[in-house]
């Protein structure tokens, strides 16, 4: 017990914020429950269990489901999407009549998958005949079901929730914030709905999800009828970054949730100041209901609270012994789900064409050291390790035949003085958005690339695409290439 107390004290001294894995966050503090890019959170409670997922973009398997029993300690338990339907954006996870539904938009369409248990298996995606983004499900007490979309549009659903039965109608126009506010766009998005004490409550996002630090926000409206008219909350914006001096920027895209003890919370995302390339973290804090039936933060919304960081989603080393990829891994590239083999101590890219494929993880830390051991590879394949933003934006080191290559974006330069056919290990470090790359024959003695890469501009406001930096192993070119092991270590 004494050693645990000393360790806790050391952690508090070592980190700028408190670090904890503790009780539910009903304390007026701001809790960071998932670091790294976990944007557009959606959360549902089932008894004393909570389940959550996020946008998974163009990575597969997609829509990782996280589980918690206290809202602060989270573990991944399944992936809900195993078919490539395009770029997956903000989902809505709900439970209705004993079945879990996950609605999500992709490539101009909307889909739904279902499961009896969030651990899976999840159904194949069913396409819904409605355009738009950010679907939000709601059912009346009588069982009639609807799907709200961005811009306040709503469509009726069939009783089983798997089919759209009418045309979109705009029923809500959002909250008009002051004209002199610095935002990205009006952008009424992410309608998340509940029914409570005779009112339907819509929690929505406005202001744009990037742009200025003060752009994003969480707004609230309510109505006696699911189809409106909607009355905007006097406490809007419920969540907002009021100043560039705050620790988290562009806070928004909220969902409200209660626990089994009657406490209420809002879960949302935000960029950390000075670390925009790291993506949007998932945040949670307590809310309370007023006597006249509105909800607001349990603290002064214009005073930044104490921030508690929770050490969830750690990246694990992998020797690829299992025949199934661990839940920390995502794939990118054409036919990614059919372009690999794993097990017996190897991960193998099987590229039928010359398009890039990647194997990547979401790092909860912004500073880390990554090392991989290479296996057999065809001479035409460029097999590398990178700090990755997109196929066109990355810093990496690779081998191809007897060559070693330093890569920045689409520029390739030779790494002179070493032979690719001798190199067995690659290493990349990211520290304060600065990347260094290394090669080794034995995994003990490392040769550093002559160039250090500055990646602080690799964020959405500069490059678009709502992407973020993360470690990625890649294969570029036609043929097969193997990885034997993966090692990850956080850096201070």
TrEMBL record:
A molecular function (GO) held by this record is:
hydrolase activity, hydrolyzing O-glycosyl compounds
The answer to whether UniProt assigns keyword Signal to this entry is yes
Q: What's the short name of a Pfam family annotated to this entry?
A: Glyco_hydro_43
Q: Which SUPFAM superfamilies match?
A: Arabinanase/levansucrase/invertase, Concanavalin A-like lectins/glucanases
Task: State the species of origin.
Answer: Rhodopirellula europaea SH398
Q: Which UniProt keywords apply?
A: Glycosidase, Hydrolase, Signal
Q: Where is the active site?
A: 40, 189
**Site (Important for catalytic activity, responsible for pKa modulation of the active site Glu and correct orientation of both the proton donor and substrate) location in chain:** 134
Q: Which family does it belong to?
A: Belongs to the glycosyl hydrolase 43 family.
Protein name per UniProt: Glycoside hydrolase family protein
Which GO biological-process labels does this protein carry? Answer: carbohydrate metabolic process
Where does the record locate the signal sequence feature?
Answer: 1-22
């Amino acid at each position: 017990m004494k050693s645990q107390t000393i360790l806790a004290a050391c952690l508090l001294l070592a980190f700028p914020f408190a670090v904890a894995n503790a009780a539910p966050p009903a304390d007026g503090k701001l809790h960071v429950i998932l670091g790294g890019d976990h944007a557009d959170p959606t959360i549902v409670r089932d008894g004393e269990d909570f389940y959550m997922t996020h946008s998974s973009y163009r990575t597969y398997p997609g829509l990782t489901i996280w589980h918690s029993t206290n809202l602060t300690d989270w573990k991944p338990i399944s992936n809900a999407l195993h078919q490539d339907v395009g770029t997956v954006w903000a989902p809505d996870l709900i439970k209705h009549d004993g079945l879990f539904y996950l609605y999500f938009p992709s490539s101009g369409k909307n889909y739904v998958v279902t499961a009896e248990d969030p651990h899976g298996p999840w159904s194949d995606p069913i396409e819904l005949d409605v355009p738009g983004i950010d679907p939000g499900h709601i059912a009346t007490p009588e069982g009639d079901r609807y799907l709200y979309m961005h811009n306040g549009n709503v469509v009726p659903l069939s009783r089983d929730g798997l089919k759209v039965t009418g045309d979109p109608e705009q029923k809500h126009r959002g909250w008009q914030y002051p004209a002199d506010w610095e935002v990205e766009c009006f952008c009424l998005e992410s309608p998340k709905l509940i029914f409570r004490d005779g009112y339907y409550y819509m929690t929505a996002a406005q202001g744009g999800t990037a742009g200025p630090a003060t752009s994003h926000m969480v707004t609230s409206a309510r109505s006696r009828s699911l189809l409106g008219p909607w009355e905007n909350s006097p406490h809007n914006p419920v969540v907002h970054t009021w100043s560039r001096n705050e620790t988290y920027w562009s806070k928004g895209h909220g969902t409200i949730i209660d626990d089994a003890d009657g406490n209420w919370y809002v879960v949302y995302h935000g960029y950390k100041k000075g670390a925009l390339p790291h993506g949007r973290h998932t945040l949670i804090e307590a809310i309370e209901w007023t006597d006249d039936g509105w909800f607001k933060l349990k603290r002064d919304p214009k005073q930044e609270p104490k921030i508690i960081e929770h050490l969830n989603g750690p990246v694990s080393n992998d020797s690829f012994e299992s025949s199934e990829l661990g839940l920390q891994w995502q794939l990118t590239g054409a036919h990614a789900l059919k372009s690999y083999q794993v097990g017996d101590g190897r991960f193998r890219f099987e590229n039928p064409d010359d398009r890039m494929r990647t194997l990547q993880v979401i790092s909860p830390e912004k500073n880390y050291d990554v090392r991989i051991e290479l296996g057999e590879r065809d001479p035409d394949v460029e097999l590398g390790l990178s700090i990755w933003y997109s196929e066109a934006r990355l810093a990496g080191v690779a081998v191809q035949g007897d060559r070693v290559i330093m890569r920045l974006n689409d520029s390739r330069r030779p790494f002179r003085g070493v032979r690719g056919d001798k190199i067995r290990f690659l290493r990349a470090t990211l520290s304060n958005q600065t990347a260094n790359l290394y090669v080794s024959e034995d995994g003990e003695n490392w040769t550093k690339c002559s160039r250090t890469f500055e990646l602080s501009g690799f964020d959405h406001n500069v490059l678009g695409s709502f992407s973020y930096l993360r470690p990625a192993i890649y294969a570029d070119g036609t043929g097969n290439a193997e990885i034997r092991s993966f090692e990850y270590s956080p850096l201070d």
